Known about the structure:
Elements: E1 13-16, H1 21-32, E2 37-40, H2 46-52, E3 60-62, H3 71-83, E4 88-93, H4 95-108, E5 112-116, E6 127-132, E7 135-140, E8 148-151, H5 161-178, H6 186-208, H7 213-233, H8 237-249, H9 253-268, H10 273-283, H11 288-299, H12 315-322, H13 336-348, H14 353-356
Parallel strand pairs: 1-8, 2-3, 2-4, 4-5, 5-8
Antiparallel strand pairs: 6-7
Helix pairs in contact: 3-4, 5-6, 5-7, 5-9, 6-7, 6-10, 8-9, 8-12, 9-13, 10-11, 12-13
Bound molecules: nicotinamide-adenine-dinucleotide (NAD).
Amino acid sequence: MSLSFAHVTLAQRVLFGAGRAAEHLAAEVDRLGAQRVMVIASESEMEMARAVAARIEVAHWHDEVVMHVPVEVAERARAAAAAAAADLLVSVGGGSTTGLAKAVALTAGLPIVAVPTTYAGSEATNVWGLTEATRKTTGVDDRVLPVTVIYDPSLTLTLPVGISVASGLNALAHCVDSLWAPRADPINAALAVEGVRALTSGLPRIVAAASDLRGREETAYGAYLSAVAFASAGSGIHHKICHVLGGTFNLPHAETHAVVLPYVLAFNAPYAPDAEARLAAALDAPTAVAGLERLRAELRAPRALVDLGFTEDGIATAVEVALPSIPVNNPRRVTASRLTALLHAALTGVDPAELSA
Length: 357
Ligand code: NAD
């Protein structure tokens, strides 16, 4: 990897500690001098949010959260923030909840304190997303980067194992894709590799016992590193493909990442020897693909897009939409026929090694 690069580090405070979210949030509200806090959490996340916000005054509780942030949902949250004269947004929940807080921050310019409860990683990026009709738009704006992230891994103990695995593999995909994304550099690669190590260590512990706090801690730590690497390196081929599958075909976000990742890795790895060597070492396997396959088997990860509702007749459209967005620096040249083959393989869940042959 070249030692000539331009790296940007995003400024953000991170407070990490199991069982300490309420204490950390109260300290942050005090430090920021906020008087009118708006808490955002979905209905099912609200009980957690009330416990996290137990030591602060809340001006408004907002629970209308919808995956991929439909524009009308964002508009209602913006209006609620204005009506409450909010001066701080606190999000408690998964990537969908963080995403709604970002949509409000984007137009209102309010700071966010994010308390993530999945491994999606949105809390550590300056990327926002909004959906109008079936078109998902994303953008980059530093106004949406939470000023503080409060990680309390005990909040993830209730996250079901299946969602934990998919969400953790979404984080792993941030790490892998960072290694060949448009702004890949040695700093974000170092973060990504440590992220792979932490996720590879934490996720099997969660599958063995959902209540394993050490596994939850390692996975949350890995998820943070993965998101920092991703925010710094930008979206690579993997994210471009998954963005189309999620946006155009409404496939579930984390599960789609979990299924597609081995195929992108098998596709690129032979053409990206540095990434291959780093990932194989971090996964402690002879090759990166073998390491990822072993991990996915241990985690009983979702294996085929067909199981997520994707069908063969969607492949041509997916290729047409995704192809122009694939970064030109991708290590292997991507053609329509190669992308078609990749999606065919991911559709049915064949052995990813067949793609690199
Ligand atoms: P999600 O936020 O939709 O959460 C999945 C489910 O888990 C929901 O039903 C939620 O209520 C539940 N849940 C959350 N925390 C829980 C807990 N601790 N215990 C029990 N249940 C819990 O899914 P996600 O995968 O976290 O986020 C996906 C969204 O985030 C997508 O819209 C994606 O585009 C976005 N995202 C954005 C970025 C970015 O940088 N902007 C990065 C990653 C993901």
